[in-house]
Amino acid sequence: MGQITLKQVTKSFGNTDVIRPLDLEIGEGEFVVFVGPSGCGKSTLLRLIAGLEDISSGQILIDGQDASHTPPAKRGLAMVFQSYALYPHMSVRKNIAFPLKMAGMDQAAIDAKVNGAAKVLNLTDYLDRRPGQLSGGQRQRVAIGRAIVREPKAFLFDEPLSNLDAALRVNMRLEISELHQSLKTTMIYVTHDQVEAMTMADKIVVLSAGRIEQVGSPLDLYRHPANKFVAGFIGSPKMNFVTGPEAAKHGADTIGIRPEHLKLSDSGWAGKIGVTERLGSDTFLHVHMDGMDTMTVRTEGDTALKYGAPVHLTPDPACIHRFDAQGKTLA
Amino acid sequence: MATAHSRIAARFMLAPAVLMLLCWMIVPLAMTIYFSFLRYNLLMPGMEQWAGFDNYSYFLTDPAFFTALKNTLLLVGGVLLITVIGGTLLALLLDQAMYGQGFVRIMVIAPFFVMPTVSALVWKNMFMNPVNGLFAYMAKAVGLQPFDFLSQAPLASIILIVAWQWLPFAALILLTAMQSLDREQMEAAEMDGAGTFSRFIYIVVPHLTRAVTVVILIQTIFLLSVFAEILVTTNGGPGNASTNITYLVYAQSLLQFDVGGGSAGGIVAVILANIVAIFLMRMIGKNLEA
C-alpha cells in the first residue's frame, strides 16, 4: 500500500497560482524526491498531499481512493517537518507515543511500539529526555520515530536535513535511505539540494514555478535532461552553457557541457584559469573563456595550474547537450 | 568589555539610583514598623506611648481580621480563576483571523485603561443598581425580581468587577503566548490524529503554562491590594462581608483613627503577601525556568 496519484491538481493563493495543473504518479514503495529552487511550490505540493492545505482543483488519490478532501489524520500519511515540530513539553517517549495515544491504542501496545521504534533509531537511551536536551540529529530521529510508529502508507519529508550541519546531513541521508530499504514504504521527500535528490531518490520530480519540468530516475535526469532548466539544476558543479556561433556549429541555440566532460587540451576553446577549488579527489577549475562565459572544469585532484595561466578546453563530443531557443532539449 | 575598571565605574554610577530606591522603600517600611509598636490615635495627637505587641495582638484576634483574610484569598483566587480561564478562551477567539482584527484587539484592552474607581462606579450605578441598573432592567424585562448585587452578594460582585478589569491583561499576555506557538507543531499534531480539543489540551495548554505563571504572579501582587473598587462600591460592607485586609487596614487607621493598629495590620499584610509569594514561587515558579 502507498500509491499516490495526483490528477490535474492546482493550488492558488488569491491570484497567485502556486501549483499549475499537475499530474503525478507515485508508485508503491518508491522514494520520490521533489526538488527545485525555493519558491517553486515543492513544499506546497507536499502539504497538499498531506492535507495541510486544500487543493484548489483536481484530485488526489491514495491507494485508489479519492482523498482530495479527507482530513490529514485520515489519509494515513506521516510527515517529518523541517523544524522537526517535536512537542517540547513531552519526553521523547511521549512524543513518539503521541499519535498512538491519539489513535486510542492501549498502553501495552504503545510501549511495545515505542520501544521497537527507539531501538531501530538508536534512541533507547534518550527516551526519558525532553527534545530540548537532544542534539539536532537526535531530534530528527525522534521526529522520524514519531512517523514510523504510525505505520503510515507513506512518509512525507519536508526538507528534514536543512537544519543539520554538513557532516550530520550526510549521515542522516544514509540513515533515511537505510530506513527506506528496510521499511519498503513509499517516501516523498522535499529538498532544494540536488545532491540529496541524486543520492536518495528512486525517482526525482524537478519542479519550477509550480510546474513539473521532468520526472525520472537520477541518472536519467543527469544523462537526458528534458530542458535547459533541468540540465542546469541537476549535477554539481553546474553544467556550462554556450550560446552563439559555437552552439550554431552543433545546430542548436544553446549547448551544454558538464564540467566532467570538458578536457584540458592543446587546442580548442581558449581561456585563462581563474579560481581553482581543490577538493583532494577532484579539482574544479573556473576558466575565464575568450568570448564566452566562465566555464567550470572538473579535473584530477593533483592538477596544478596557476591563476591566469592560458589553457584550451575541448568538450567530449558524445556528451554535448543541445537545446533550442525555448530551452527544450533537441533530440 | 567588562573590565574591572568599567565594573567599578558602573557601580558608582548605579549607586545613586539604588540608594534612592532603597530609601524610597525602607523609610515608609521603617516608619510603619515603628508606628505599629506605638499607641498612636489621631484623636489624641501627641499622646503616643510605647505599646509593645499590643497592636498586633488586637489586630490578629479581631474577628474582622479572619473575615478579611478569607475575603482577600477569595478575591485573589476568584479573580485569578476567572481571568486565567476566561483569558485563555478570549485569547483563543482573538487568535482567529477575522475582519478588523487590530481594532478588536485594541478594544479588548480598553477596560484596563479605565481607572478602578471609575469602572467600579460604572458597574455599581449603571449595571448593578437594583433600580436603575442594566441588570435590573433586564430582570424586569423578563418579569423577574431585580437582584441587588452589592448587598446580596457583595464579595462576588467585587470579584466580578475586578475580574472584568484584569481579563484583558490576561487575555493579551496569553494571546501573545499563543501566537508564539510553532505552527508546524500544530500541523504535526493534526497529522498525528489529534482533534481540535486534543490539540488544545496537549499542545496549546502546555505551551501556555509559562504565560499563565506570569499572569498569576503579576495579578496576585495587584489583587492582594485591591482597595478602590471596595471603597466606592460597598465600603467593605454590608458588615464586613466585602472587607479585605487592605480595606481593614484603611478602616483601622483612618475610620477608627488608630494609626498604631493600622500599621500593625499593614505589617501583617506585608508578611502575608510574602507567604503567598513563597507559596506561589514554590508551586509555579519552576515554570519560569527555561
TrEMBL record, chain A:
Domain ABC transporter: from-to ranges: 4-234
GO-annotated molecular function: ABC-type maltose transporter activity; ATP binding; ATP hydrolysis activity
PANTHER family linked to this entry: MALTODEXTRIN IMPORT ATP-BINDING PROTEIN MSMX, MALTOSE_MALTODEXTRIN IMPORT ATP-BINDING PROTEIN MALK
Protein's UniProt keywords contain Zinc: no
PROSITE patterns assigned to the protein according to its UniProt record, in alphabetical order: ABC_TRANSPORTER_1, ABC_TRANSPORTER_2
One annotated Gene Ontology cellular component of this protein: ATP-binding cassette (ABC) transporter complex, substrate-binding subunit-containing
CDD domains: ABC_MalK_N
Name of the protein this chain belongs to: Sorbitol ABC transporter ATP-binding protein /mannitol ABC transporter ATP-binding protein
Topology of this chain in the membrane: Peripheral membrane protein
Family designation: Belongs to the ABC transporter superfamily.
Subcellular location: Cell inner membrane
Keywords (A to Z) from UniProt: ATP-binding, Nucleotide-binding, Transport
Pfam family, one: ABC_tran
UniProtKB/TrEMBL annotation, chain B:
Domain ABC transmembrane type-1, chain residue ranges per copy: 69-280
Record-linked Gene3D superfamilies: MetI-like
UniProt cross-references to InterPro entries, sorted A to Z: ABC_transporter_permease (IPR051393), MetI-like (IPR000515), MetI-like_sf (IPR035906)
One Pfam match: BPD_transp_1
UniProtKB keywords: Cell membrane, Membrane, Transmembrane, Transmembrane helix, Transport
Major location category of this protein: membrane
TM annotation in the entry: 12-37, 73-94, 106-123, 155-177, 208-228, 264-284
Cellular component aspect of the GO annotation: plasma membrane
Record localization: Cell membrane
GO biological process: transmembrane transport
Database matches in PROSITE patterns: ABC_TM1
Protein origin, superkingdom: Bacteria
Topology of the protein relative to the lipid bilayer: Multi-pass membrane protein
Family per similarity comment: Belongs to the binding-protein-dependent transport system permease family.
Name this protein carries in UniProt: Sorbitol ABC transporter membrane protein /mannitol ABC transporter membrane protein
